[in-house]
Amino acid sequence: MGQKLGVKTPVIDSIITLGSAMVGIDFDQTGVTLKELGIGHLDRAELLDYLENGNYKEEA
């Protein structure tokens, strides 16, 4: 989500890397994507509106 919104996320990126190393699972490859959550099609404004106000726009 940080990438989609253009926000750098170095702290959570580090936590994900450390967690992946600790359990031996590549979370970058196995984690849930925005598409899988049903919000991958939303642009920045639509995503923020959904997160802040709950207004969901169906995929065209």
Q: Which descriptors would you attach to this protein?
A:
60 residues; mainly alpha; elongated
| Main sheet record | none
Radius of gyration: 14 Å
Number of strands: 0
Low-pLDDT stretches are none
Mean pLDDT: 94
Describe the structure.
The structure is a single chain. Helix content is 60%, strand content 0%. It has 5 helices and no strands. The chain has helices spanning 2-5, 10-23, 27-30, 34-37, 44-53. The chain is elongated, with a radius of gyration of 14 Å.
What can be said about this structure in brief?
The chain has 60 residues and is mostly helical.
Summarize the SSE layout with pairings.
Elements: H1 2-5, H2 10-23, H3 27-30, H4 34-37, H5 44-53
